[in-house]
Amino acid sequence: MDAAENRSEPREEAAAGAAPTLQVRDLSYSYGKAKALDGVSLSARAGRVTALLGPNGAGKTTLFSLITGLFDSRRGEIVIAGHPIRRARSKALAAMGIVFQAQTLDIDLTVDQNLRYFAALRGLPGRHARDRIAALLAEIGLADKAKAKVRTLSGGQRRRVEVARALLDRPALLLLDEPSTGLDIATRRWLTTHIHSLARDHGMAVLMATHLVDEVLAEDDLIVLDKGSVVASGPVGEVVLRSGAADLDAAFTRLTAGKPEAKP
Ligand code: ATP
Predict the structure, then answer these.
(1) Helix (H, G, I), strand (E, B) or coil at 183
(2) Ligand 1 pocket member 60 (CB < 6 A)
(3) Distance CA 78, CA 56 (A)
(4) pLDDT tens per residue, range 27-57
């Protein structure tokens, strides 16, 4: 089956009674003459994890750079929690928490100092920030590490702190760019469980870029990106069914004409 046959518009939100938290419409981006994204439309809904699955070079990081305002494109539109990023940049960015692929904590500061500094940048009042930080550290199982310098933490603990930091001011949209890169199995498992609980129990919209099919759960929404275009989107079961493949692994291979990454 041709990949184009699997293309579908972002899921109609009317049935759910609410606009999606993230809407991307007809977005294109080029590095010089090389097109990295070509007419990408997608959405991420509150209360759901949306997996953005694509092989290396598909355009995931470019897309995240546009959604987070690091890059700008005049071709297409990005709306976050009702705020178009080009016309209401501060409000759009304030509605979003981000976990980048690379580690971004200051390793010479303590966990608490990292979080308090970020809380100040986001305009959280001191007392509120203290309470929120204590609650988040308890939630990620690192309450006893508040005064520890980040350089003394393991990679998995650092990633947990980055997730807590992204949640400080309760964003409507949580973006994670290949968050399990370099992590051990226990932390990867924790991450998957935690982000699904954030969506399910706290109504957050979560958009997670990955190239690992085993990080996508049957209950998730899925967007398959390949060579800068969305080649399939919808609930995981529907995408697999439309592809004519037996499971997500086979569907991904069929849709992207490539091999999924081996499970680490
Ligand atoms: P990966 O999983 O390897 O991180 P990706 O899906 O995030 O890949 P991008 O990094 O967004 O993909 O790259 C999309 C395309 O744009 C690729 O063809 C890549 O070579 C190209 N590209 C990315 N960054 C640049 C750049 N700074 N200059 C030129 N081309 C770039």
Answers:
(1) coil
(2) yes
(3) 23
(4) 999 999 999 999 999 999 999 999 999 998 9
